[in-house]
Amino acid sequence: MTVVKGRASPGRQKAYQDGAYRHGYTGRGSIPRVDLWIAAFLGLRRQDSAVEGVADPSSLGMSPVFAFLCSCALVVAALAANASRLGEGWAVPTFYCAVAAIFLPAAARIIHPGASRLERLALIVIVTSALFVVRLIRAPVAFIDHDEFLHWATVNDILEAGRLFLPNPLLPVSPLYPGLELITSALVNLSGLSVFAAGLIVLAAARMMLMLTLFLLFEKITGSARIASIACLIYMGSSTFLLFDVHYSYESLAIPMLAAVLLASESRHMERSGAAGWPTVVATTVLIVALAATHHLTSYFCAALLCGTAVMECLRQGASAMQRRQAILLASIAVIAPVVWSKIVGNPTGSYILPVLAGGIHEVAQLVSSSTSTRKLFVSDTGALAPAWQRYLTMAGVALICLGLLTGFLRSLVFNGQHRNASILWPPTRWRLWRSSLLQVLVLVTLAYPVSIIFRLTRSGWEIGNRIGSLSFLGVAIVVAVAVAAFWHGTSRGWLRATALAAAATTVLIAGVISSEGPRILVPAGYEVSADSSSIEPMGISAARWTREWLGGDQHFAADRINRLLLSTYGRQKVSTTLESGQDTGMAITAADLGPMERKLLIDSGIGFVMVDLRMTTGLPGVGVYFDGGAQDRNHVVPLQSSSLLKFNSEPDVDRTFDNGFMVIFDVGRLGKTRQPGVPGKRTGEPVQSLGRTDGDLR
Question: What is the model's pLDDT at position 267?
């Protein structure tokens, strides 16, 4: 690229302040150079922009007004959630509008340069709190999401047994990373609260810790409170932010701990002398070890970030020898800690993660080679097509993120350079002149975002893409924020541009929620087949509690995906899963006859009781599987047959223990001699005869 030297008149500089001249380019002709406009768009060169606010730094500004607006929007969200339970069609769009009403006004104020640092921080706290209340409105009295039951079972084991690492067949890896469960069980013992209430307190504290830590981290590596606050807004657009990362799951605590590790690591640069930074290194080490015992994937990602930072620190011109040694030390600890912990607890993550990763990579390879069809976008496993407005918003959100990355990737590298008015491409001596090595790494992390989109196009790789996307948003947030502050908004003092950019950020937020939750963001009026939160209802909960009251706890059950969650938590029963035993007992339940192979499968698995839910015959599974998700489970193109589920009735050595019209429990203990007759537990209630149903009878 050729740079035309020269000096433009003040009038021409003002005329082209939003074009090439604002970025340090001038030309001799009357027609602007195309290559200069392209360079200005991509951010190859730019002059310093006034990216900071101009208000009093100690002023709260309009934050009280926005707090009132958020409270009004939450009332609308609560009304929409209640309307969804009554079957109103307008509930879901209204709920999304309420979320947008919480976010958009505060986003416009944060993007505008007139807000002070304190006001920006207050607005981040207000929006974060309001969005967490949205999670409470969706599930106000109990856990309803799939992953929450997995960790709830682990907490129950810790509370009842008083020790760690008890087996959890729902998720065998969960008891081995007990950071979240330890904090929750301690709070339950100290306060007497229920697991649900204590879990909400822990999740609320973790969410607030995450956003405050991210603000301080982004401010530290950019030197700008405005860019830091905008980056926090963009981070909220991650598909996992609104709901998934506030589920009662170990990642919900691990992500804030990752942000704390990065902030503590960057705090070393505040110390003038190397020796003064060693207390910070010790604190960072403690956080790294705690993270390694909380979540495996997040600790691996932390190790990758710190290793990348150490490499950049060694390459950076001007870094002291002490800074390089400390960076290498922290990277080494980040690599060693999760490896040592996995060896201590039994190294289960390889068998748990690798099959999922291998399946996703295989489908992506088939997608690239065009040897197989992709997952139908916006179409559920039951064949339902998402509404048009959800499809268009999701595509618009992805397009806006890609546009922000296009205009912010190189601009962020220039912004991080020590010579901000100079080209990052020439001369090469400027390649190693940057201020923050972590910012350099986060910019490179954004390259994983397009990879996550590719994984989302496949069936097996969707979950991989969802996790990659959420982690890559740490880089996406800061890159897009630099583009917004230095290019799209710049030094403008008007509200029109700030409002337009806030609307774009709101689109990204809503698009992220739709791509993660879609139409199932609210609890529907009626039961849905194998649809996770839409399948958790009073009848299943009552049946699970009946098993504990009348059969005693710790009986070995075979059941479908939903009922095994309820049996494990509300019923405190032992359930059979392929993750634990490698045997899919769902094949014996769905088989047309109880033949020798099915009998052997139940006997070898030690099954004492089989729970059959006849509602599975009314539709295809909402999440694609009825049971464990094996190959046989995914091949269903029509609902299950009731004759297959009720085949146990004709077996003379099988007893029908429970029947409420929809759910039947069969005692299959006499199929083999591996089970001794159980002693019924102490009766604490009356037998359940019929639990009723409000959404129609089973045909």
Answer: 86
